[in-house]
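ok trying this again, last paste got cut off
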Amino acid sequence: MEYMTKAVCMAKRISSVLLIGALITLQLLGAPPVAAYAEEIGDYDLYATAAVLMDGESGRILYGKNADQVMPMASTTKIMTCIIALENGNLEDTVTASAYAASQPKVHLGMVKGYTYRLEDLLYSLMLESHNDSAVAIAEHIGGAFLQLPPTQERSQEESRQAVAAFAVLMNRKAADLGLSDTWFITPNGLDASQEVTLENGETVTRQHATTAAELACIMRYCAWQSPQKDKFLEITRQRSYFFAELSGRGSYTCNNHNSFLDMMEGALTGKTGFTNAAGYCYVGALEADGKRFTVALLACGWPDNKTWKWADTKKLMNYGLNNYAVHSFSEYAYDAGNLSPVSVAGGQSDGIGAAARVGVEIIGREQEDKILLREDEEIQVSCRIEEVLQAPVEKGENVGIITYQLNGEILWTEFVVTTGTVDKIDFRWCMRQILAGYLLG
């Protein structure tokens, strides 16, 4: 156990520990660190301009190529559209197509203003065929409800755009909740777009509809394994073919899944393709096999006629993960609480005059039991730093130390050491009680 060598004011120590904890939390919420040994896959071995292989359990990036480069992501956007709709809508809702939705370019379902659909049916249209009009109709339905706009068929084009913008706010809020700072959504279908955004300081900047490979992988990780609606998301995105009809019988539709990766590797779980002129071919997918979970994100993986490049890159990265990483649990490396000893309290009341005042300590934060993938040459380092002497008074539950778990110099997780009791400061009344007790015993 490594101890701090100075006794300082407890308030200062608590502030420093809390600050460290906050910084660690922000780091964990953001794009995770890149593994140090990923160079075995050379950057030129992949077609994609930006690529990431992520551990689906811990969120750690196992390989990254231009992982933090901000780039357009085309229809991979729709995984966020789908999860926002699942978390904020009702699958049995009736969605009415507006003129604005019906005007979206191909690939589209072929909506007509006033046609009605079940929200669930449109989610299959969104994810299997990547229909742009379905994406806008879904966004307008949910965003319009938040803004309490007139019924869809009565809206102006501007009101429809306002409803879609409200849905984009939900998308960006979710991205922020996931700790993503380089992702910005403008459209629900992923078509290239930009907008002027006013910052809190009043400055106006131009934001593109874009993300990074690292953050796109984080979004897929959330959709596949963390969202309350993850099961429905997987059900929709794994469906090979889906048939539905317009609610008033004015048309019927068959949607086929274009995620060819589902048939390429055992354990292929879900995924979404995308293409625009600016983004090139994009892909984000997830795989679960041998107790391991992986997410791959590819941006700018070729342009016509390079449709198959994304599948080659995806398989290469997934196989790299399967062949080089084994499953471990954070609990394997948990710091032994038996190594903790009571901490001295300077100026604290004890059992008697001359006796040392001490307070017990314990570890909190042990709820982290997630699995992590490690290479054979990787090992988690654990360190513990605890105050050597505290200053009375001490309250129960005060932070007095920190335990960190690091890999390749990057912090993976942190736990705190806190006091289990209270120690009051020596005062006149305590001194008199001790003197009186000594007199009576004598």
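PB: full thing came through this time. Residues 29 and 178 are 6 Å apart (CA to CA).
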